[in-house]
Write a structure and sequence with these properties.
Strand order of the largest sheet: 12-11-7-10-9-8-15
Bound molecules: (2R,3S,4s,5R,6S)-2,3,4,5,6-pentahydroxycyclohexanone
Number of helices: 10
Distance between the termini: 47 Å
Shape: globular
Strand content: 15-25%
Structural class: alpha/beta
Helix content: 25-40%
Oligomer: single chain
Number of domains: 2
Largest sheet: 7 strands, mixed
């Protein structure tokens, strides 16, 4: 008779919207894990999140949690600039780590993390690029790999948010939002991004003062595939992420048909998800379940810290391109270490992408 392993004891660091969402997810939908610690200097937020996870204890700092309770794993859902101070001690403690995107806020910090991780025997860090677990993106990648429609030539991506949180800056368009396309374009094409250019159309007057958006970000991959990303972050109507992939003999589209379409009273309508939490809810569930299962095996099962480092290099060039108005080359300072030579397996997903 097989005995189930003891649940992974997880600390969630950062009890804002994303952190609380993960606490709820682990407590209600994920097997093999339990939230035992919640870390947030904001006591009100920590307590509210702890109410979602019976038996969890709140702490003001990660160090306090490490000293006080036994932990196997940590989910880091704080802003990017606060990731490194949690990741480094978590690596020292040998914990399984799920760091929300971005891995960190600078290339230098991402490199320090990658270097620190390589002192261990195997990767411990998975980065929260949840789109890699979304059925549509997985089907699109399979289509590219099968080559049924010839080579992939270009991607039209739309990334639309209804509104921005406080303190959302122009660089956040790249480092907080387009960072997802920065990860998914190499995932789909199998190639690194080699240049980035940013164009700014007429400004949306509904954006907060000083925020120049929407923007169009043009990525070029090593073989010349182009990806154009419209990033609009105050578009009001809801949250929408779509991709149209142009092949030599066909077009595949994902992201438009998540919900039922209703024809009624002379109109055809479909609801739009209000935020990324609903649009990518299933992808988050799959991501966290696979991370938990992998942690029990002593592995990661998704984007690594190396992927996080690559994304931070492209994001840097993207922020430069926002300022310069020019096409900026992307230069990766180091080659991929052998330590990171494992390939993420493709999840099986129902088929709906067409070409
Ligand atoms: C947010 O942090 C996310 O990660 C969402 O997926 C993205 O669409 C949004 O623009 C970001 O602010």
């Amino acid at each position: 008779m097989s005995v189930s392993p003891a649940p992974l004891r997880v600390a969630v660091v950062g009890a804002g919207a994303m952190g609380a969402d993960h606490v709820r997810r682990i407590t209600t939908r994920i097997s093999g894990a339990e939230v035992t610690a919640i870390v947030d200097p904001d006591t009100g937020r920590a307590t509210a999140a702890a109410e979602l996870a019976p038996g969890s204890v709140t702490f003001a700092s990660f160090e306090e949690a490490l000293e006080a309770v036994e932990l196997d794993a940590v989910i880091i859902a704080t802003p990017g600039f606060l990731h490194e101070p949690v990741i480094l001690p978590a690596l020292d403690a040998g914990l399984a780590i799920l760091s929300e995107k971005p891995l960190s806020d600078t290339v230098e910090s991402s490199l320090r993390i990658v270097e620190a991780e390589q002192k261990l025997a195997r990767p411990h860090i998975q980065v929260g690029f949840m789109r890699r677990f979304d059925a549509g993106y997985l089907q699109l990648r399979e289509l590219v790999e099968r080559g049924d429609n010839g080579a992939l030539l270009a991607l039209h991506c739309a990334h639309r948010n209804p509104s921005t949180p406080p303190n959302y800056s122009e660089s956040a368009l790249i480092t907080d939002s387009v960072i997802h396309e920065i990860d998914i374009v190499p995932f789909l094409t199998g190639e690194p991004i080699v240049s980035v250019e940013v164009k700014k159309p007429r400004r949306n007057s509904l954006a907060p003062d000083g925020l120049v958006e929407p923007q169009f970000v043009l990525f070029e991959t090593a073989s010349g595939t182009l990806a154009i990303v419209e990033i609009s972050v105050n578009i009001q109507f809801g949250y929408q992420v779509t991709t149209d992939a142009v092949f030599e003999s066909g077009v595949a589209s994902i992201g438009r048909a998540e919900t039922i379409q209703i024809a009624s009273a002379g109109q055809i309508g479909q609801s739009v998800t209000p935020s990324f939490k609903e649009r990518f809810g299933l992808a988050y569930d799959t991501e966290i379940q696979r991370w938990v299962d992998a942690a029990h095996r002593g592995e990661i099962d998704g984007p690594s810290a190396w992927d996080g480092y690559l994304a931070s290099v492209v994001a840097d060039a993207g922020v430069l391109a926002q300022q310069s108005g020019k096409k900026e080359p992307v230069t990766y300072a180091i080659e991929k270490p052998a330590f990171y030579e494992t390939r993420q397996s493709l999840a099986t997903a129902p088929s709906s992408a067409t070409a």
